[in-house]
Amino acid sequence: MKNLKLKSARARLDMSQEQLAEAVGVTRQTIGMIEAGKFNPSLQLCIALCKVLGKTLNDIFWEEES
Amino acid sequence: MKNLKLKSARARLDMSQEQLAEAVGVTRQTIGMIEAGKFNPSLQLCIALCKVLGKTLNDIFWEEES
DNA sequence: ACAATATGCAAAATATAATTTACGTATAGA
DNA sequence: TCTATACGTAAATTATATTTTGCATATTGT
């Protein structure tokens, strides 16, 4: 499923996918795929994304149990 | 670096590496390598581990800034 | 002593994350 | 209209996570 939390956190900082990608050292496509929910990133990439976005792992990647 | 939070959370449930591995669908070696800090697991594996251990991503995989 | 469990380690093979390159569309500005 | 930016998507390649198999040691129970 899509990761809208990542998308909105990026939007809140007014960053493009490319800017975020460069900030964490991956390519634009990687960011796009993660936001689209097409594959599962590595833990280190998740952590790097959170630090750039000023969020924690739970903020961006944890789904609360219903 | 070692992931001692994972190791202690597993110990608290009195689970062996092999039991935890089976519970999340990976091999014993994968659990051992993660605890030893030898490589970075995928996000989905981290989430599966947290759910089995009754913890969140932040509990096990997030390092607070100093 | 013997057997069973738990763990660490490592080489080779496999699965998949991530890159590179490229093409398409939509929008905003000159 | 023309140009530039942003985003979605996809095939082929590369890097690396994960598996498989095996061997070693320590510990616990019989």
Largest sheet of chain A: none
Number of domains of chain A: 1
Count helical runs of chain A: 5
Span between termini of chain A: 16 Å
Low-confidence runs of chain A (pLDDT<50, min 5 residues)? none
Structural class of chain A: mainly alpha
* Net shape of chain A: globular
CATH class of chain A: Mainly Alpha
| Secondary-structure element order of chain A, N to C | HHHHH
Query: How many beta-strand segments of chain A?
Result: 0
Strand content of chain A: under 5%
Helix content estimate of chain A: 55-70%
Annotated CATH architecture of chain A: Orthogonal Bundle
Protein name (chains A, B): DNA-binding transcriptional repressor PuuR
Keywords (chains A, B): DNA-binding
GO molecular function (chains A, B): DNA binding
Domain HTH cro/C1-type (chains A, B): 6-60
